[in-house]
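quick one, 145 residues, struct below
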Amino acid sequence: MRGRQTAEASPEVVTSILTVQSHDVYALIDLSSTLYYVTSFVAMEFGIEPDQLHKPFSMYTPVGESTTVARVYRGCIVTVRDRNTTADLIELGMVDFDVIMGIDWLYSCFAKLDCRSRAMRLEFPNEPVVECKGDNVVPKGRFIS
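---
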């Protein structure tokens, strides 16, 4: 993981606005991440109680600090262009992004990610293709974090 400026410059990621539990969030879609994360500031707005992980684990935050994670928000609805998906989001103390979505979420969405053009295509079977163009700019407007 990496800080906002480093992450946004990387060809391995796309930043975009996603909707999680009906809240617009600033997301890092990171091919190097296998898990999904949410900042506690966003998670407070979900209206659901987190589960304790059976075995907490240590990891590095996007800014390189070590932390232990112990809570997960299960079955969160992640919406991309009116198409609902679900993800279990691990609570992580971070301020650079509201959520970090990883490669397994992309796989579950039948996603194709074009890092050069910062575009994502969700090709669910027997459904119209959902296209989402990411960006590398700090979002404008009112967001949770």
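Confidence is low (pLDDT under 50) at residues 136-145.
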